Amino acid sequence: QILYLKPPWTLASLLQCYKKHWVAVFGYVVPRSLLATVEYLYKHLLSAQTVDSSTAGVLLQESKKLLHAFSSRSDYNGVLPRAYAEVSKLHQTLTEDLSEDTMVLSENAVCEKMEAMTPNLQNCEEKKLHSSTHVAQENRHQEIWSVLEGVWNTINSYSVEIFQKLDPNTVTVTAKSSFEEAFLGLQKLIAAVNDILEGIRR
Asked: How many other CB atoms are found less than 10 A from the CB of residue 199?
């Protein structure tokens, strides 16, 4: 009823609404610090300039952060998990491509430098081994991320089914108590997964 811009919304108008109503509305739903994320997305996604791959990676990461924050409120009829999965897929593809490019460039640079100086095959092999170890570590991080994401999506889908089948008119006092316990348990799980993800990022 009281809205800065009326629907239908474009991405630009949606982000503007976030900014305009952040203090009064959205800051009560998700952490207020995420306003910086909204402003970052607004600045780069609506710019006429193309972004480089590293900026694209940050944009996808920030988008995931915003979607994940709103997932603690609702799944929005299944739209949010699908959006999060698509953004995650894009981010993983970009990360893998960047890792491969970095590995190829670093290997070529090392080998060319070694050939220009005194040939030392052992040193070049050591550099390649270090590079492949780094890539393996990156893949491990992606694997951990995928497992956590799978856990979240599974629990989220079960929760949606349970909530949809619950009929408030027929729920007994005992069932209501169990429902509240389940809800609190999910909130604790979200916090725990957040902590794990922060640890992986560090």
From this structure: 9
